[in-house]
Design brief:
With 574 residues, the chain is α+β, with helices and mostly antiparallel strands. The chain has a domain of 261 residues: Dipeptide-binding Protein, Domain 3 (Dipeptide-binding Protein, domain 3), CATH 3.10.105. The protein has 16 helices and 20 strands. The strands form five sheets. Strands 1, 7, 8, 9, 10, 11, 12, 15, 16, 17 and 18 form an eleven-stranded mixed sheet that branches. A hairpin with a 2-residue loop joins strand 5 and strand 6. Helix 7 packs parallel to helix 8, helix 9 packs antiparallel against helix 11 and helix 15 runs antiparallel to helix 16. The longest helix has 18 residues.
Length: 574
């Protein structure tokens, strides 16, 4: 269990967070104003993969353990981290036993028990529920309460890394009493529970307006009687990243603003005003192009962008997707939109460094004359010849090489789209650009045609990452069964609808493999399979960039968990 020991290093320091606020008293600092320009749509992370929704929920819902700013695993609702050495993980690696801290209360004053943990597993794995975080429970055979505070998770295989269930912001504990009638297909219909979850976190939801604003109040039953220092939190959504940065660093209207996807020179000018500053850290975030392997033709009706509707007319051809990747000068994208907060990457799994493959480094030559020439050659080989207007047409059936490319509304993303459109035009690709409000795009509403899960386009672009430093659950996103479809309420994580039995088998091997180096080799192979297939075209390894006012204390930037992970320790500097 060397990996676990590495993860736990520094946990004592993490538990001492917020020492600067030690003299604070609950609610003494009034209101905290936070701006997530991608507005929160739902406060149930099991029904949304959008970071904005997971983080909005993290003020209320908490896991047994989470990750600190250095990627170390630290106990949260649990007393400690189970290991083989302390007896919490069985010698055969098939069970892990968690002990809840005594005296934990839900925000309604009732006791937190092991039954709530068991129920959380039942909720996420219920058939027809479309749980967005199902990969966290991969290979879980049973979860049982041994007593009121003890839970044992049993796996059907040996799990050298058994910390998928109930760890990190994406896998919190929910209250059985509140969600008991929300299993399976009923899950999305439980509006009250999904908008006003009862939790153990430092705040409770007072008012919720989807895609607009969430108002929280200090949880009167929070386990630390002196925290949180703020009585209320207003989490506002809407606008754009530049306006959000301005609201902190120029007007001081907000205390904290998330995801400053703004040109670096603009941020520097704002910071020079002396009201606030940029905070950043590199984790695993990658801006990428997701390639639709299924047919998004509207004529297919309900089968549109599903495997039942058939494969994409040309994007399953590796020569086409390789050409699209070779045409992109990623360094230009970094220089124009990200500056020091971005790095060229050819992998969807760029960090920690031990997981970063070098097998796809050919993409770093993208946009050079040699790479563009190779892209054109590949398209010729795939049967696409230049037409009269310069757009390539497939000789066999007359299909134009035309792509609908969508992303969320954001100045940097629209600039990136425009640059890529120009780069693709050079190799004879016609590109239609579409941008959708971030609140809708990442909202996870199964009735909306505009979500990134529905993927009613050929290519879509966004950033994603994973909790902690072990990529097992993350790489499980591209299992065959994770493809969004009507059957799972469009809530799977496999946006390309990629399906390869060899990938699924290799992922199973990862879940059974001990030793950090051996796990890293398998994870790199999984990454390489996705890139080689053309399911994902990575662009930029992004640092998390946010903005905070200078008088906000206690904040610690965390690229491995929710950015609001230690909000109980935030306070106003007097």
């Amino acid at each position: 269990m060397r990996l676990v020991r590495n993860l736990m290093l520094g946990s004592a320091a993490a538990l001492a967070l917020g020492a600067g606020a030690a003299e604070a008293r609950r609610g003494q600092d009034g209101q905290l104003n936070i701006l997530y320009w991608q507005a929160v749509s739902i406060l149930n992370p099991f029904l949304s993969g959008g970071t904005k929704d997971v983080e909005g929920a993290s003020l209320v819902l908490e896991p047994l353990a989470r990750y600190d700013q250095d990627g170390n695993m630290v106990p949260w609702l649990a007393e400690d981290i189970p290991t083989v050495e302390n007896g919490g993980v069985s010698a055969d690696l098939k069970t892990i036993t968690w002990k809840l801290k005594p005296g934990l209360k839900w925000s309604d004053g009732s006791d937190v028990t092991a039954d709530d943990v068991v129920f959380t597993w039942a909720y996420c794995t219920a058939e027809g529920g479309g749980c967005q975080q199902a990969t966290a429970f991969e290979n879980v055979a049973n979860v049982e309460a041994l007593d009121a505070l003890t839970v044992r998770v049993t796996f059907d295989i040996a799990k050298p890394f058994p910390y998928g269930p109930f760890v990190g912001a994406t896998s919190p504990i929910i209250q059985k009493a509140q969600f008991k009638d929300c299993l399976g297909p009923a899950a999305p219909q439980c509006t009250q529970a999904n908008f006003y979850p009862i939790g153990t976190g430092p705040f409770v939801v007072k008012d919720f307006k989807a895609n607009d604003v969430v108002v929280y109040e200090a949880n009167p039953h929070y386990r630390d009687p002196d925290k949180p220092a703020f009585q209320t939190v207003v989490l506002k959504g809407g606008g754009d990243a530049a306006a959000a940065a301005r609201s902190v660093m120029e007007t001081g209207e907000f205390d904290y603003a998330w995801n400053m996807q703004v040109q670096p020179e603009i941020l520097a000018a704002m910071e020079a005003k002396g009201i606030g500053k940029v905070v950043s850290a590199f984790g695993t975030s990658v801006e990428r192009l997701m390639v639709n392997f299924t047919n998004p033709d509207p004529a297919l009706g309900e089968k549109r962008s599903t495997r039942e509707g058939g494969p994409h007319p040309f994007l399953t051809d590796r020569r086409v997707t390789r050409a699209l990747s070779l045409a992109i000068d990623r360094q230009v994208l970094v220089d124009v939109g990200y500056g020091p907060a971005g790095q060229v990457t050819c992998n969807v799994l760029p960090a920690p460094a031990i997981y970063n493959s070098t097998n796809n480094d050919w993409c770093k030559k993208g946009g050079t004359p040699e790479a563009v020439a190779e892209a054109k050659r590949l398209l010729e080989e795939a049967g696409f010849k230049p037409g009269p207007d310069g757009v390539r047409v497939r000789e066999s059936d007359g299909r134009r090489l035309s792509i609908l490319y969508q992303t969320s509304t954001n100045a940097v993303r629209q600039e990136t789209q425009a640059l890529i459109k120009q780069m693709w035009a050079e190799i004879g690709v016609e590109t239609e650009l579409r941008n959708i409000s971030a609140s809708v795009f990442f909202g996870g509403d199964p009735s909306s045609p505009d979500t990134f899960q529905k993927f009613y386009a050929d290519i879509e672009m966004y950033t994603n990452n994973f909790d902690g430093t072990d990529p097992q659950n993350y790489m499980g996103n591209w299992l065959c069964k994770e493809a969004p479809s009507p059957e799972n309420n469009w809530l799977g994580n496999n946006m390309p609808r990629y399906c390869d039995p060899e990938y699924d088998a290799l992922f199973l091997k990862l879940s059974q493999t001990a030793g950090l180096e051996a796990r890293a080799e398998i994870a790199k192979k999984l990454n390489d399979m996705l890139i080689e297939a053309g399911a994902i075209i990575p662009l930029i390894h992004r640092g998390r960039v946010s903005a905070k006012k200078n008088d906000l204390g206690g904040h610690i930037m965390n690229p491995w968990d929710s950015e609001l992970w230690n909000i109980a320790d935030w306070y106003r500097i007097k």
